[in-house]
Amino acid sequence: MFPEYDVIVVGGGHAGCEAAHAAAQLNAKVLLITMDMGKIAQMSCNPAMGGVAKGQIVREIDALGGMSGIITDKTMIQFRMLNRSKGAAMWSPRCQSDRMRFAEAWRLALEQNPNVDFWQEMVTGILIENHQVKGVKTSMGIEIKAKSVILTSGTFMNGIIHIGEKQFGGGRAGERASLGITEQLETLGFEAGRMKTGTPPRVDGRSLDYSKMEEQKGDEIPNKFSFTDTPALKEQRSCHITYTNTEVHEVLQTGFEKSPMFQGRIKGLGPRYCPSIEDKINRFAERDRHQVFVEPEGWDTVEVYVNGFSTSLPEDVQYKAMRLIPGFEQAKMFRPGYAIEYDYFPPTQLKLTLETKLIENLFFAGQINGTTGYEEAACQGLMAGINAAQKIFEKEAFVLKRSDAYIGVLIDDLINKGTEEPYRMFTSRAEYRILLRQDNADERLTPIGHALGLASEERLKNVEKKKRETIELLSTFKKTKLKPEQLNPFLENLGTATVKETTPLLTLLKRPQITLINLAEAHAEVAELLQVYGIEVQEEAEILVKYDTYIEKEQRMAEKISELEDFKIPADFDFGAIKGFSKESTEKLNKIRPATIGQATRVSGVRPSDISILLMYLGK
Question: Which domains can be identified in the chain, with CATH numbers?
Answer without folding.
Answer: 5-200+342-452 (3.50.50.60), 202-336 (2.40.30.260), 457-551 (1.10.10.1800), 566-617 (1.10.150.570)
